[in-house]
């Protein structure tokens, strides 16, 4: 597919909280590529068999080289999503063609969890329980699983298991990035997870090691390719586990790094959300954005500008909005659930939003220096009928047809569309694993059948107030029903919030970790000739938290 957006990792700051990496990859670099462009559509491949002396070997070897399906994305040298693995019993030890697995140290426990197995989130959590397993929002369909906790080994047993890729062609490359999504929970001291690479059958070198929780993270590790090397293999090794929780791996790839950033952005857009009765922090955030050297061409306010739809709430927000205007003079607003709360009725609240946003219809497109900003909005919500409960988003066929037409237009031009909607798309960003956020759209299928035809999109969601310090502050929306584009997917980014900051708490709940006195976050989006860069900002400290690049 043309015009794929591909994720390039770069973290400027990491915080040791739930969801932040505990043991970072040893050589992770800015300018990595993978994410959305390496979804599940490229298939698996052929390879050589690694050493099987440690136990059983699965998969088959039918050649020396991995043979990926053809793709127009020249950055992708090879990719494996595991989605083509056949799991007639919902789990299998049979690795994809060309892969091999081995296990040692195991004489007890449940056979299902002996070494690496392949399954999906539904059946994994049904068999083993949740216990934060379902926080793995980066996963899609089938993925590779070690569940040492569920295996229930005898006290004297200690499992070491390996999963080794096919031989991947790298001839002519000076440097590549090894990419994968993973979800690791640490158990007893002494248990670790490591990633190794080898070239042309030579000595393996460790490129990453994990001995602390790393929840739902996309890894990108830059590797120098030895002169004359033709092939490489990647090995995932789980070491010395006994009752030591789990490690899940998905979307493994080898890609060409994105080059050095050059030139000025074509467009810069500021993004704020979830003001919810905190006008002082809103004004402070706008002042900081206005003061930045690289001026934005627009401001997006991605819903929950007010705490409820009352006139008083709107008067308070509009006063703050007028007192500190955004320097661009161009804005796009979306409707959050709080705009529709109260007893005055949906028509009244929608009317206020349209009046104050200057829109004729709930949906709208603004173009900033040739880059489209597109809003997706509800057309009805009754707090009286729903008692504050989801679904919050009712989207008409008229709006969906319009959205389809606009996305097709910009896709044909090769221009990424920046799409804004307040609610979360399930299984994308932080907190989207939760049952609380699975039902925000009245007809998610209808929306998915439109947006998942395209992968030249960056989608922005808010609503959860979820911390931007988490690994999965961005993710990938994948959907099997619309062919390659849907399965490859597009990146989805959490916008943070002006009011409060949350982290997951238990299976589906959340907790405030920073009240409004400490919390205020948002984004800057910069569209360059070769990438879309999304910067996460903390307005209390005035610092950039980190950024993420998505290749055009």
Structure commentary:
The structure is a single chain. The protein has two domains: 31-255, Jelly Rolls, CATH 2.60.120; 267-551, Purple Acid Phosphatase, chain A, domain 2, CATH 3.60.21. A hairpin with a 5-residue loop joins β9 (192-199) and β10. α3 (279-291) packs parallel to α4. It has a seven-stranded mixed β-sheet with strand order 1-27-26-25-14-15-16, with helices on one face. Strands 2, 4, 5, 8, 11 and 13 form a six-stranded antiparallel β-sheet that branches. The protein is globular. Helices cover 15% and strands 30% of the residues. It is built from nine helices and 27 strands. The two termini are 12 Å apart. With 552 residues, it is α+β, with helices and mostly antiparallel strands.
Most strands sheet: 7 strands, mixed
The quaternary organization reads as single chain
Tell me the number of structural domains. 2
| CATH homology group of the largest domain | Metallo-dependent phosphatases
CATH class of the largest domain: Alpha Beta
CATH hierarchy: architecture of the largest domain: 4-Layer Sandwich
Helix content estimate: 10-25%
From the alpha-carbon coordinates, what is the Rg to the nearest angstrom? Answer: 23 Å
Q: State the separation between the terminal residues, measured CA to CA.
A: 12 Å
């Amino acid at each position: 597919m043309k015009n794929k957006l591909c994720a390039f990792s770069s973290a400027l700051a990491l915080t040791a909280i739930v969801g932040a990496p505990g043991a970072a990859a040893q050589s992770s670099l800015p300018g990595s590529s993978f994410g959305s462009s390496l979804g599940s559509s490229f298939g698996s491949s052929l390879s050589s068999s690694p050493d099987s002396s440690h136990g059983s070997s699965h998969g088959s070897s039918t050649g020396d080289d991995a043979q990926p399906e053809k793709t127009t994305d020249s950055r992708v040298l090879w990719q494996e999503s595991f989605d083509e693995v056949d799991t007639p019993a919902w789990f299998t030890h049979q690795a994809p063609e060309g892969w091999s697995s081995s296990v040692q140290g195991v004489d007890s426990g449940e056979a299902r969890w002996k070494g690496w197995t392949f399954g999906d989130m539904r059946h994994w959590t049904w068999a083993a329980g949740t216990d934060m397993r379902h926080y793995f929002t980066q996963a899609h369909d089938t993925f590779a699983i070690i569940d040492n906790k569920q295996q229930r080994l005898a006290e004297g047993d200690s499992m070491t298991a390996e999963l080794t890729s096919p031989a991947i062609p790298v001839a002519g490359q000076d440097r590549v990035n090894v990419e994968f999504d993973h979800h690791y929970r640490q158990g007893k001291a002494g248990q670790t997870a490591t990633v190794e690479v080898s070239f042309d059958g030579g000595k393996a070198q460790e490129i990453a090691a994990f001995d602390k929780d790393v929840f739902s993270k996309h890894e990108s590790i830059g590797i120098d390719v030895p002169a004359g090397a033709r092939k490489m293999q990647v090995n995932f090794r789980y070491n010395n586990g006994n009752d030591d929780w789990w490690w899940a791996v998905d979307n493994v790839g080898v890609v060409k790094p994105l080059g050095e950033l050059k030139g000025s952005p074509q467009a810069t857009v500021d993004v704020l959300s979830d003001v919810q009765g905190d006008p002082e922090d809103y004004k402070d955030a706008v002042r900081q954005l206005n003061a930045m050297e690289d001026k934005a061409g627009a401001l997006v306010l991605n819903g929950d500008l007010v705490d409820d739809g009352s006139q008083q709430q709107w008067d308070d927000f509009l006063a703050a909005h007028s007192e500190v205007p955004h320097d661009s003079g161009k804005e796009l607003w979306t409707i959050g659930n709080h705009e529709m709360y109260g007893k005055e009725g949906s028509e009244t609240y929608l009317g206020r939003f349209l009046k104050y946003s200057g829109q004729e219809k709930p949906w709208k497109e603004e173009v900033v220096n040739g880059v489209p900003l597109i809003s997706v909005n509800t057309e009805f919500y009754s707090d009286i009928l729903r008692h504050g409960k989801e679904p919050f988003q009712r989207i008409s066929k008229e709006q969906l047809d319009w959205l389809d037409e606009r996305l097709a237009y910009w896709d044909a031009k090769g221009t990424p569309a920046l799409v804004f909607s307040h609610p979360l798309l399930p299984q994308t960003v932080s907190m989207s694993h939760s049952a609380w956020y699975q039902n925000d759209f009245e007809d998610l299928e209808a929306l998915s059948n439109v947006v998942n035809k395209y992968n030249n999109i960056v989608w922005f969601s808010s609503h959860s107030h979820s911390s931007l310090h988490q690994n999965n502050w961005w993710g990938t929306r994948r959907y099997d029903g619309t062919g390659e584009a849907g399965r490859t997917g597009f990146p989805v980014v959490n916008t943070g919030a002006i009011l409060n900051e949350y982290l997951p708490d238990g299976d589906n709940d959340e907790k405030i970790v920073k009240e409004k006195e400490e919390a205020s976050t948002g984004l800057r989006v910069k569209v360059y000739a070769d990438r879309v860069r999304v910067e996460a900002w903390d307005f209390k400290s005035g610092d950039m938290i980190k950024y993420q690049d998505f290749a055009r």
